[in-house]
Amino acid sequence: MTEEVTVTQGRRQVPVISLIWLGLAVLLLVLSFFSVPLKDARFAGESASLAPNFWLPTLAPDTNSRDGMTLISVGAIDTGIPFWILAFVFAGLELWLARIFAQRDEKLIRPLFRAATVFLAFWSFFGHLPLWDALLSTIFPRSPQILYPRTTVIELTAQHLELVIVSSVITIGIGLALGIMVTRAQFREFLPLVSDFVNAGQTVPTLGIVAIMVPIIGLGFWPAIVALILYGMLPVVRNAIAGLEAVDPFVIDSARGMGMTPSQILWQIELPNASRIILAGIRTSVVINIGTAALGAYAGSGGLGVPIAGGLSQTIFPFVLLGALPAALLAILIDYVLERIEFVLTPKGLQIEK
User: Fold this and answer.
1) Phi/psi class of residue 312: alpha, beta or left (left: φ > 0; alpha: ψ in -120 to 50)?
2) Whole-angstrom Cα Rg for the chain
3) How does pLDDT run across 97-145, given as a tens digit for each residue?
4) Domain finish residue from 139, 173, 190
Protein backbone atom coordinates (compact mmCIF):
# COMPACT_ATOMS: atom_id res chain seq x y z
CA MET A 1 0.00 0.00 0.00
CA THR A 2 1.35 3.41 -0.94
CA GLU A 3 0.52 6.49 1.06
CA GLU A 4 -1.33 9.04 -1.01
CA VAL A 5 -0.42 12.61 -0.13
CA THR A 6 -2.59 15.36 -1.57
CA VAL A 7 -1.02 18.78 -2.09
CA THR A 8 -3.21 21.85 -1.63
CA GLN A 9 -1.69 25.34 -1.84
CA GLY A 10 1.80 23.98 -1.25
CA ARG A 11 0.90 21.94 1.84
CA ARG A 12 0.41 18.22 2.12
CA GLN A 13 -2.89 16.91 3.41
CA VAL A 14 -2.93 14.23 6.07
CA PRO A 15 -3.60 10.79 4.56
CA VAL A 16 -6.42 8.84 6.15
CA ILE A 17 -4.10 5.93 6.96
CA SER A 18 -2.02 8.16 9.27
CA LEU A 19 -5.09 9.17 11.25
CA ILE A 20 -6.16 5.53 11.50
CA TRP A 21 -2.85 4.54 13.13
CA LEU A 22 -3.03 7.45 15.56
CA GLY A 23 -6.66 6.69 16.38
CA LEU A 24 -5.84 3.06 17.12
CA ALA A 25 -3.02 4.17 19.39
CA VAL A 26 -5.37 6.39 21.40
CA LEU A 27 -7.98 3.62 21.59
CA LEU A 28 -5.49 1.04 22.85
CA LEU A 29 -4.10 3.51 25.38
CA VAL A 30 -7.61 4.06 26.77
CA LEU A 31 -8.23 0.32 26.93
CA SER A 32 -5.00 -0.17 28.87
CA PHE A 33 -6.56 1.62 31.87
CA PHE A 34 -9.41 -0.87 32.22
CA SER A 35 -9.13 -3.97 34.37
CA VAL A 36 -9.96 -7.10 32.36
CA PRO A 37 -9.34 -10.26 34.39
CA LEU A 38 -10.96 -12.70 31.95
CA LYS A 39 -8.58 -15.09 30.20
CA ASP A 40 -10.37 -14.65 26.89
CA ALA A 41 -9.84 -10.91 27.11
CA ARG A 42 -6.19 -11.50 27.92
CA PHE A 43 -5.69 -13.49 24.74
CA ALA A 44 -7.57 -10.85 22.77
CA GLY A 45 -5.29 -8.16 24.16
CA GLU A 46 -2.25 -10.24 23.31
CA SER A 47 -3.43 -10.61 19.73
CA ALA A 48 -4.04 -6.88 19.47
CA SER A 49 -0.55 -6.10 20.69
CA LEU A 50 0.98 -8.49 18.18
CA ALA A 51 -0.97 -6.79 15.41
CA PRO A 52 2.05 -4.68 14.30
CA ASN A 53 3.29 -7.86 12.61
CA PHE A 54 0.28 -7.59 10.32
CA TRP A 55 0.25 -3.81 10.06
CA LEU A 56 3.85 -3.44 8.91
CA PRO A 57 3.24 -4.49 5.28
CA THR A 58 0.51 -1.83 4.98
CA LEU A 59 2.61 1.03 6.29
CA ALA A 60 4.03 3.25 3.60
CA PRO A 61 7.38 5.05 3.72
CA ASP A 62 7.56 8.79 3.89
CA THR A 63 8.11 9.64 0.24
CA ASN A 64 9.50 13.04 1.20
CA SER A 65 12.58 11.45 2.77
CA ARG A 66 15.59 11.35 0.49
CA ASP A 67 16.69 7.87 1.47
CA GLY A 68 13.44 6.28 2.52
CA MET A 69 13.41 5.71 6.27
CA THR A 70 17.03 5.65 7.45
CA LEU A 71 17.19 5.49 11.23
CA ILE A 72 20.80 5.73 12.27
CA SER A 73 24.24 6.11 10.69
CA VAL A 74 27.13 5.93 13.14
CA GLY A 75 30.44 7.65 12.39
CA ALA A 76 32.18 6.70 9.18
CA ILE A 77 30.24 3.44 8.91
CA ASP A 78 27.10 4.10 6.92
CA THR A 79 24.65 1.74 8.61
CA GLY A 80 21.12 2.42 7.41
CA ILE A 81 18.28 0.90 9.44
CA PRO A 82 14.62 1.24 8.40
CA PHE A 83 12.85 3.57 10.79
CA TRP A 84 9.97 1.22 11.58
CA ILE A 85 12.41 -1.23 13.18
CA LEU A 86 12.87 1.12 16.15
CA ALA A 87 9.13 1.29 16.77
CA PHE A 88 8.89 -2.48 16.40
CA VAL A 89 11.73 -2.97 18.88
CA PHE A 90 9.97 -0.74 21.41
CA ALA A 91 6.77 -2.76 21.00
CA GLY A 92 8.62 -6.06 21.29
CA LEU A 93 10.48 -4.84 24.35
CA GLU A 94 7.20 -3.83 25.95
CA LEU A 95 5.73 -7.28 25.27
CA TRP A 96 8.78 -8.97 26.77
CA LEU A 97 8.71 -6.81 29.89
CA ALA A 98 4.98 -7.40 30.31
CA ARG A 99 5.46 -11.17 30.28
CA ILE A 100 8.33 -11.08 32.76
CA PHE A 101 6.48 -9.49 35.67
CA ALA A 102 2.89 -10.44 34.81
CA GLN A 103 1.39 -12.10 37.88
CA ARG A 104 -2.30 -11.57 37.13
CA ASP A 105 -4.32 -11.19 33.97
CA GLU A 106 -4.89 -7.51 34.69
CA LYS A 107 -1.13 -6.93 34.87
CA LEU A 108 -0.62 -8.62 31.52
CA ILE A 109 -3.30 -7.14 29.32
CA ARG A 110 -2.58 -3.52 30.19
CA PRO A 111 1.09 -3.61 29.18
CA LEU A 112 0.15 -5.54 26.04
CA PHE A 113 -2.25 -2.80 25.02
CA ARG A 114 0.40 -0.21 25.82
CA ALA A 115 2.85 -2.09 23.60
CA ALA A 116 0.61 -1.52 20.60
CA THR A 117 0.15 2.09 21.71
CA VAL A 118 3.92 2.65 21.76
CA PHE A 119 4.29 1.26 18.27
CA LEU A 120 1.40 3.16 16.71
CA ALA A 121 2.04 6.48 18.41
CA PHE A 122 5.72 6.33 17.52
CA TRP A 123 4.97 5.55 13.91
CA SER A 124 2.18 8.12 13.60
CA PHE A 125 4.23 11.02 14.90
CA PHE A 126 7.67 10.24 13.52
CA GLY A 127 6.87 8.17 10.46
CA HIS A 128 4.31 10.37 8.74
CA LEU A 129 5.54 13.84 7.86
CA PRO A 130 2.06 15.05 6.73
CA LEU A 131 0.87 14.84 10.35
CA TRP A 132 3.44 17.43 11.37
CA ASP A 133 2.44 19.50 8.35
CA ALA A 134 -1.23 19.49 9.37
CA LEU A 135 -0.53 20.12 13.07
CA LEU A 136 1.81 23.05 12.50
CA SER A 137 -0.43 24.49 9.77
CA THR A 138 -3.29 24.54 12.28
CA ILE A 139 -1.21 26.25 14.97
CA PHE A 140 0.46 28.72 12.59
CA PRO A 141 -1.99 29.22 9.70
CA ARG A 142 -0.29 32.41 8.46
CA SER A 143 3.28 31.16 8.55
CA PRO A 144 4.92 31.18 5.10
CA GLN A 145 6.96 28.08 5.97
CA ILE A 146 5.80 25.07 7.96
CA LEU A 147 8.21 22.15 7.52
CA TYR A 148 11.97 22.43 7.74
CA PRO A 149 13.10 22.41 4.09
CA ARG A 150 16.55 20.82 4.40
CA THR A 151 15.65 17.48 5.96
CA THR A 152 12.78 15.44 7.43
CA VAL A 153 11.67 14.71 10.98
CA ILE A 154 12.87 11.12 10.65
CA GLU A 155 16.38 12.15 9.64
CA LEU A 156 16.55 14.70 12.44
CA THR A 157 15.35 12.09 14.93
CA ALA A 158 17.97 9.65 13.63
CA GLN A 159 20.73 12.18 14.27
CA HIS A 160 19.28 12.97 17.69
CA LEU A 161 19.14 9.31 18.67
CA GLU A 162 22.72 8.82 17.52
CA LEU A 163 23.87 11.57 19.87
CA VAL A 164 21.81 10.21 22.77
CA ILE A 165 22.77 6.54 22.33
CA VAL A 166 26.52 7.09 21.92
CA SER A 167 26.77 9.60 24.76
CA SER A 168 24.58 7.53 27.11
CA VAL A 169 26.55 4.32 26.56
CA ILE A 170 29.84 6.09 27.31
CA THR A 171 28.33 7.98 30.27
CA ILE A 172 26.88 4.84 31.85
CA GLY A 173 30.12 2.90 31.43
CA ILE A 174 32.36 5.61 32.90
CA GLY A 175 29.84 6.61 35.58
CA LEU A 176 29.34 3.09 36.92
CA ALA A 177 33.08 2.45 36.90
CA LEU A 178 33.74 5.64 38.90
CA GLY A 179 30.89 4.91 41.31
CA ILE A 180 32.14 1.39 42.00
CA MET A 181 35.77 2.50 42.26
CA VAL A 182 35.28 5.21 44.90
CA THR A 183 33.15 2.91 47.08
CA ARG A 184 36.06 0.44 47.40
CA ALA A 185 38.21 0.90 50.49
CA GLN A 186 41.47 1.38 48.57
CA PHE A 187 40.05 4.20 46.41
CA ARG A 188 37.72 5.92 48.89
CA GLU A 189 40.14 8.85 49.22
CA PHE A 190 39.23 9.83 45.64
CA LEU A 191 35.52 10.22 46.48
CA PRO A 192 35.66 14.02 47.02
CA LEU A 193 37.64 14.48 43.79
CA VAL A 194 35.16 12.41 41.73
CA SER A 195 32.19 14.18 43.32
CA ASP A 196 33.65 17.61 42.48
CA PHE A 197 34.36 16.50 38.92
CA VAL A 198 30.84 15.24 38.16
CA ASN A 199 29.26 18.22 39.93
CA ALA A 200 31.32 20.57 37.76
CA GLY A 201 29.93 18.84 34.68
CA GLN A 202 26.45 20.14 35.48
CA THR A 203 27.63 23.45 36.91
CA VAL A 204 29.09 24.58 33.59
CA PRO A 205 26.30 25.21 31.03
CA THR A 206 26.16 22.58 28.29
CA LEU A 207 26.35 25.22 25.57
CA GLY A 208 29.50 26.55 27.24
CA ILE A 209 31.10 23.09 27.12
CA VAL A 210 30.16 22.82 23.44
CA ALA A 211 31.73 26.23 22.77
CA ILE A 212 34.93 25.17 24.54
CA MET A 213 35.14 21.84 22.70
CA VAL A 214 34.60 23.25 19.19
CA PRO A 215 38.01 25.04 18.97
CA ILE A 216 39.71 21.94 20.43
CA ILE A 217 37.93 19.14 18.53
CA GLY A 218 36.28 21.05 15.69
CA LEU A 219 32.71 21.15 14.48
CA GLY A 220 30.68 17.98 14.12
CA PHE A 221 29.68 14.97 16.17
CA TRP A 222 32.18 14.80 19.06
CA PRO A 223 31.90 18.26 20.69
CA ALA A 224 28.26 17.51 21.49
CA ILE A 225 29.14 13.99 22.69
CA VAL A 226 31.74 15.34 25.14
CA ALA A 227 29.26 17.91 26.46
CA LEU A 228 26.53 15.28 26.89
CA ILE A 229 28.90 12.90 28.68
CA LEU A 230 29.98 15.56 31.18
CA TYR A 231 26.42 16.79 31.71
CA GLY A 232 24.89 13.33 32.13
CA MET A 233 27.59 11.91 34.40
CA LEU A 234 26.28 13.27 37.72
CA PRO A 235 23.06 11.18 38.08
CA VAL A 236 24.87 7.94 37.19
CA VAL A 237 27.82 8.45 39.55
CA ARG A 238 25.74 9.90 42.39
CA ASN A 239 23.17 7.10 42.30
CA ALA A 240 25.83 4.41 41.94
CA ILE A 241 27.58 5.70 45.06
CA ALA A 242 24.32 6.13 46.97
CA GLY A 243 23.06 2.68 46.01
CA LEU A 244 26.27 0.84 46.88
CA GLU A 245 26.68 2.65 50.18
CA ALA A 246 23.06 1.88 51.10
CA VAL A 247 23.71 -1.87 51.10
CA ASP A 248 23.51 -3.24 54.65
CA PRO A 249 27.08 -3.77 55.98
CA PHE A 250 25.91 -6.83 57.92
CA VAL A 251 24.86 -8.47 54.65
CA ILE A 252 28.33 -7.82 53.20
CA ASP A 253 30.00 -9.16 56.36
CA SER A 254 27.83 -12.29 56.17
CA ALA A 255 28.82 -12.82 52.54
CA ARG A 256 32.48 -12.34 53.42
CA GLY A 257 32.11 -14.83 56.27
CA MET A 258 30.69 -17.38 53.82
CA GLY A 259 33.94 -17.17 51.85
CA MET A 260 32.79 -14.98 48.96
CA THR A 261 35.50 -13.01 47.17
CA PRO A 262 35.26 -9.20 46.82
CA SER A 263 34.21 -9.52 43.17
CA GLN A 264 31.52 -12.06 44.08
CA ILE A 265 30.23 -9.77 46.82
CA LEU A 266 30.09 -6.88 44.34
CA TRP A 267 28.26 -8.74 41.56
CA GLN A 268 26.03 -11.00 43.65
CA ILE A 269 25.29 -8.87 46.72
CA GLU A 270 26.01 -5.16 46.29
CA LEU A 271 24.93 -4.48 42.70
CA PRO A 272 21.63 -6.43 42.90
CA ASN A 273 20.70 -4.63 46.13
CA ALA A 274 21.70 -1.25 44.69
CA SER A 275 20.13 -1.87 41.27
CA ARG A 276 16.95 0.14 41.88
CA ILE A 277 18.87 3.30 42.78
CA ILE A 278 21.48 2.79 40.04
CA LEU A 279 18.84 2.25 37.34
CA ALA A 280 17.00 5.38 38.47
CA GLY A 281 20.20 7.37 37.92
CA ILE A 282 20.73 5.87 34.47
CA ARG A 283 17.14 6.69 33.53
CA THR A 284 17.57 10.29 34.68
CA SER A 285 20.83 10.65 32.75
CA VAL A 286 19.38 9.32 29.49
CA VAL A 287 16.33 11.59 29.68
CA ILE A 288 18.57 14.58 30.42
CA ASN A 289 20.67 13.73 27.37
CA ILE A 290 17.59 13.61 25.13
CA GLY A 291 16.74 17.20 25.99
CA THR A 292 20.30 18.48 26.09
CA ALA A 293 21.26 16.89 22.76
CA ALA A 294 19.32 19.66 21.00
CA LEU A 295 22.20 22.02 21.81
CA GLY A 296 24.44 19.92 19.58
CA ALA A 297 22.98 21.79 16.62
CA TYR A 298 25.19 24.77 17.47
CA ALA A 299 28.27 22.56 16.99
CA GLY A 300 27.05 21.10 13.70
CA SER A 301 26.11 17.76 15.30
CA GLY A 302 22.60 17.71 13.82
CA GLY A 303 19.57 16.39 15.64
CA LEU A 304 16.24 17.91 16.55
CA GLY A 305 17.98 21.06 17.73
CA VAL A 306 18.65 22.05 14.10
CA PRO A 307 15.11 23.29 13.32
CA ILE A 308 14.90 24.84 16.80
CA ALA A 309 18.05 26.89 16.24
CA GLY A 310 17.02 27.74 12.67
CA GLY A 311 13.53 28.76 13.73
CA LEU A 312 14.78 31.00 16.52
CA SER A 313 17.36 32.72 14.29
CA GLN A 314 14.86 33.27 11.45
CA THR A 315 11.79 33.86 13.67
CA ILE A 316 9.97 30.93 12.05
CA PHE A 317 8.14 29.38 14.98
CA PRO A 318 6.86 26.24 13.18
CA PHE A 319 10.51 25.18 12.86
CA VAL A 320 10.92 25.55 16.63
CA LEU A 321 7.96 23.29 17.39
CA LEU A 322 9.05 20.84 14.69
CA GLY A 323 12.17 20.20 16.75
CA ALA A 324 10.79 20.68 20.27
CA LEU A 325 7.68 18.49 20.04
CA PRO A 326 9.44 15.36 18.68
CA ALA A 327 12.19 15.79 21.28
CA ALA A 328 9.60 15.98 24.07
CA LEU A 329 7.72 12.94 22.74
CA LEU A 330 10.97 11.02 22.44
CA ALA A 331 11.90 11.86 26.04
CA ILE A 332 8.48 10.76 27.35
CA LEU A 333 8.56 7.50 25.42
CA ILE A 334 12.10 6.52 26.39
CA ASP A 335 11.47 7.52 30.01
CA TYR A 336 8.44 5.21 30.03
CA VAL A 337 10.41 2.29 28.58
CA LEU A 338 13.32 2.84 30.98
CA GLU A 339 10.88 2.98 33.89
CA ARG A 340 9.58 -0.45 32.90
CA ILE A 341 13.12 -1.81 32.54
CA GLU A 342 14.01 -0.35 35.95
CA PHE A 343 11.04 -2.14 37.53
CA VAL A 344 11.74 -5.48 35.87
CA LEU A 345 15.48 -5.56 36.59
CA THR A 346 14.98 -4.63 40.24
CA PRO A 347 14.95 -7.73 42.49
CA LYS A 348 11.40 -8.66 43.51
CA GLY A 349 12.03 -7.92 47.17
CA LEU A 350 12.92 -4.32 46.30
CA GLN A 351 10.17 -3.67 43.74
CA ILE A 352 7.68 -0.94 44.59
CA GLU A 353 4.25 -1.30 42.98
CA LYS A 354 2.87 1.79 41.26
Assistant:
1) alpha
2) 23
3) 555 555 444 454 565 566 666 666 666 666 566 677 777 878 888 877 8
4) 139
Same domain flag for 83 and 132 = yes
Q: Domain check: are 95 and 165 in the same one?
A: no
Domain that holds residue 191: 153-350
Q: Residue 3: phi, psi to the nearest 5?
A: -85, 120
Nearest to 5 by CA among 144, 147, 100: 147
Q: Is residue 127 located within the same domain as residue 168?
A: no
With the CA atoms of 15, 18, 23 and 28 taken in that order, what torsion angle do they form, in degrees rounded to the nearest 10?
160
Question: Which residues partner with 11 through β-bridges?
Answer: 8
DSSP sequence for 252-297: HHHHHHTT--HHHHIIIIIHHHHHHHHHHHHHHHHHHHHHHGGGGG
CA distances from 323 to 74, 123, 155, 312, 320 (A): 21, 17, 12, 11, 5
- N-terminal to C-terminal alpha carbon distance within the chain: 41
Which of 6-15, 255-264, 330-339 bottoms out in mean pLDDT, i.e. has the lowest?
A: 6-15
- Cβ contact 36:161 at 8 Å: no
Check whether residue 126 and residue 188 sit in a common domain. no
* DSSP H/E element including 11: strand 11-12
CATH of the domain at 224: 1.10.3720.10
Q: Domain boundary residue among 107, 139, 171?
A: 139
In this structure, the dihedral spanned by the alpha carbons of residues 341, 346, 349 and 351, taken in order and rounded to 10 degrees, is -40
Residues 106 and 168 in one domain: no
- Taking the CB of residue 31, how many other CB atoms lie within 10 A of it? 19
User: Do 295 and 207 contact (CB within 8 A), yes or no?
Assistant: yes
pLDDT digits (tens, 9 = 90+) for 146-162: 777 777 777 888 888 88
148 belongs to a structural domain: no
